[in-house]
Amino acid sequence: MAFSGISLEELDVKYIGDWPILFRMIIVGLMFVSSVAAGYLLDASDMWDEYNKQLEILEKQKLDFEKKSHISANLEAYTQQMVIMRKTFSELLRQLPKERQLAELIEELSQQASASSVKLPTLKPLPEQNRDFYVDLPMELSVVGSYHALGDFVSRLSNMPRIVTLHNFSIKSSGKNKDSKAEMLEMNVVAKTYTTEGNR
Fold this sequence. Notes:
Blueprint: E1 2-3, E2 6-7, H1 21-73, H2 75-94, H3 102-115, E3 119-125, E4 129-130, E5 135-145, H4 147-158, E6 164-176, E7 183-195
Antiparallel strand pairs: 1-2, 3-5, 4-5, 5-7, 6-7
């Protein structure tokens, strides 16, 4: 094959410096293109990793944006909920006396027991337990009475102005009442009340 009067068979690689300028420029161009292509291929894996990393970052940013846009769209509802929650929390805190008032509580429990026609053979304070912003004041109770009397007693405790919760129930038969012959039950329970006093 001849190119500008020169046959390709006449070109000898050993004497490339003697080749016509056009062929030397083609060789230099091919070498340049091949070196650029090789560099690109060697660097392409790093670029691909970086591309995938940026895609992951973009997806996270999209999710973050969606969450924030949802919050901002419902900001008024969230604000109203916060107001209601703060009000409810304040009301509950008001039910936690600042003083322990243990004597008054024991008297109240005795009154509720008397009103429910149950007996309180055991009413023993247990060690206090400090929590985040309040103190547990547990008491061990043993309550004896009929089924309905025990139910009435528990109901009366739930209606007290001071918060009292009942834990670790156990109920067993206590025999029959001598007068009414009704089945008597004994309920052992831990009653907890709470205070904000002494908590830091």
